[in-house]
Amino acid sequence: MTKDNKLQASPLLSFDFYLENYHKLLCNLKKEADLKQITYLLGEEISQENQSLIKNENYDALVVTNLDHSILWVNDGFIEMTGYRKNYALQKKPSFLQGKETSKTIKKEIRKQLNAHHSFDGSIINYRKNGELYLCQIKILPHYSSQNKLSHFIALEKELKAA
Fold first, then answer.
1. CA dihedral 152, 156, 162, 163 (to 10 degrees)
2. Distance between CA 49 and CA 97 in Å, rounded?
3. Which of 6, 17, 80, 124 is deepest in the core (most CB within 10 A)?
4. Contact at 8 Å (CB) between 135 and 148?
5. What structural domains does the chain harbor?
6. How much helix, strand and coil, in percent to the nearest 5, is found in the chain?
């Protein structure tokens, strides 16, 4: 309050509001860039349903694999979450992130759903490059080509907490 008891807006409060909106804008721009890169990689548009999920889901890492489950592309969030460089991850299967604490039941369920061309939504224990465990929420989406044939899988991954 001022001497004459009038309220004034605090510059700090305005800055906090600005930062909150800036973070949302930055996140949306990253998601748009991810979508453009995936579209370029696949050589075709992604289904509206998968586009909507990528735009609206909260994820740290985005991974694209072929039908053999070899990694074709990862976003920058993958590096931050796992500690592995993009070039290291390419052509490897995502299972390279798993270890002795990773549930065999979950691994089997993922294989079952993907072999049936279904999506998978669940959590799994993965390992960072430095050996640290983390709990990862994974949503794996099948991608169908314009000829309606399964061609790739897109995984949205979110770290839930350190395991």
1. -50
2. 28
3. 124
4. no
5. 11-162 (3.30.450.20)
6. 40, 25, 35
- From the CB of residue 97, how many other CB atoms can be counted at a distance below 10 Å? 23
DSSP 97: G
Query: Is the pTM here over 0.85, yes or no?
Result: no
- pLDDT score for 24: 82
Provide the residue type at 7 as one letter.
L
* Backbone phi, psi, residue 18, to 5°: -60, -45
**For residue 100, what is the enclosing H or E element?**
none
The three-state secondary structure class of 70 is: coil
| pLDDT tens profile 100-120 | 999 999 999 999 999 999 999
CA-CA-CA-CA torsion sign (137, 155, 79, 25): negative
**3-class secondary structure for 52-64?**
HHHHHCCCCEEEE
57-61 mean pLDDT: 92
